[in-house]
Amino acid sequence: MAASLVLVMVVAVTVRAVLFRSSLAEFISERVEVVSPLNSWKRVVEGLALLDLGVSPYSGNVFHETPLIIYLFHFLIDYAEFVFMAMDILTALALYIVAEDFNRVVFRKQRIAFEFKKYACDVISLVRTPKEMYHIPLKVALFYLLNPYTVLTCVAKSTCAINNAIISIFILATVKGSAFISAIFLALAAYQSLYPVALFAPAVLYLAQKHHLTVSLHSTAFLLYLVKYAVMFIGCLLISLCLSFFLLSSWTFIPSTYGFILSVPDLTPNIGLFWYFFAEMFEHFRLFFVCVFQINVFFYTLPLAVKLRDHPMFFMFVQLAIIAIFKSYPTVGDVALYMAFLPMWNHLYRFLRNIFVVSCMLISSSVLFPILWHLWIYSGSANSNFYYAITLVFNVGQILLVSDYFYAFIRREYHLIVGLHLKSKDGKEAHIVLR
Q: Distance (Å, rounded) from C-alpha 398 to C-alpha 395?
């Protein structure tokens, strides 16, 4: 397995190195699907130029990254390509270890369920075996490193790659049961792009189960653990913000980063849902609809936490997908991160209903993005409606993908308890309707 992983890494690094030296690198770095006003490398370079001149990078309306990122590249600007390739390798390694550890947890839970006779007698075909789970960690690393979305993000030198690395290390620390390291990297991820705050709930649920705590609001031990984790997270976040203030001697980065994310002033087209809607919005209603759109990322957290409290890893996957779909400035790098988790749920394939349609939607829209952009911006034979239409197809495809996996997960859990072959009262085969 280690040799296969090394081979995948070598291939991934080779592909990236070739693209970095090709004429496509400049074209990719300007694609609105790959970079956004928040993570564009050109904006980072502009911010570095201002910093070198002794001017605050936040004095204009160009740079919207966090202070720690600009100071990181202040020292590593000459090794930028190596940094971004290293971030992808680090992310893949973290996800590989996460998948390995999660496989052990799943196998242990299955054994306990059989010992206590929690599963029905006819569900052997639904039970996961070590043989089928053996290659899952390698597939996860493969899905991330060789995903075209990940490759494009790396070649464009989008700082989304750094954010993905931070989130993957946070997930790794959570799976390993290290609350303090988990809180540190969750704080760094939230500091970097704000939306990972929504991952707080699945992290607490996973850590609580890892430490054999009863997940209940009536449990004093669980509530104390929740408060402890929250204090560590908030403390680390405040330290990051104070360190940023120390570097800049100013709080101007807050409205330029978090204010920019929340208020969505830059309506540059992207693969998200915000830009076209707010370009057509009357200013009088703008604040209300900004709040409505932003709430979407966090609105589903509580019901998902209730429904998936016993399955925090799947909760983590769904929450990552929701962030990638509903954030204000999404890129394909955000999509690549949650798609890397798909091999972990390969046992759900038999219950998926729309996977072919969803695959066609995502592939066709990915191909049509640059075509419709060219027709709109360069040829003038199309308009923004064409590009936004394919954006809607892409996002609807993602929503269908997540909802299909959610349906398959819930249905499999139901069959494990009540049995695979159900009969109605008159002895005929029963049909399940999930409401």
A: 5
Distance CA 251, CA 193 (A): 17
DSSP assignment of 250-268 equals SSTHHHHHHHHHHH-----
Q: Are 347 and 103 in contact (CB under 8 A)?
A: no
The residues pairing with 309 across neighbouring beta strands, listed in sequence order, are none
Q: How many helices (H) and strands (E) does the chain have?
A: 20, 0
Nearby residues of 113 by Cβ (< 8 Å), 6 or more positions away: 119, 416
Nearest alpha carbon to residue 414 among 119, 164, 15, 37: 119
**Backbone angles phi and psi of 423, in degrees to 5:** -120, 140
Return the closest-CA partner of residue 15 out of 150, 159, 169, 217. Answer: 150
Residues 313 and 296: their CA atoms lie apart, in Å, by: 21
Q: How many C-beta atoms surround the C-beta of residue 90 within 10 A?
A: 17
Angle between helices 332-339 and 160-176 in degrees, nearest 10: 20
Q: Rounded distance, CA 261 to CA 74, Å?
A: 23
Q: Map residue 429 onto helix, strand or coil.
A: strand
Listed residue (12, 15, 79, 80) closest to 41, CA to CA? 80
Distance CA 224, CA 214 (A): 12
First to last CA, the chain: 42
Which residue in 187, 145, 132, 168 sits closest to 4, CA to CA?
145
Cβ count near 55 (within 10 Å): 12
Q: Are 400 and 407 in contact (CB under 8 A)?
A: no
Q: Please list the pLDDT of the chain residue by residue as tens digits (435 residues).
A: 688 899 999 999 999 999 999 989 999 999 999 999 999 999 999 999 988 888 889 988 889 999 999 999 988 888 999 999 999 999 999 999 999 999 998 888 888 877 767 777 777 777 888 888 889 999 999 999 999 999 999 999 999 999 999 999 999 999 999 999 999 999 999 999 999 999 999 999 999 999 988 888 888 999 999 999 999 999 999 999 999 999 988 898 999 999 999 999 998 999 999 999 898 888 888 999 999 999 999 999 999 999 999 999 999 999 999 999 999 999 999 999 999 999 999 989 988 998 999 999 999 999 999 999 999 988 888 888 899 999 999 999 999 999 999 999 998 888 888 777 766 666 666 666 666
One-letter identity of residue 279:
A
Q: Residue 227 has which token pair?
A: 């408060």
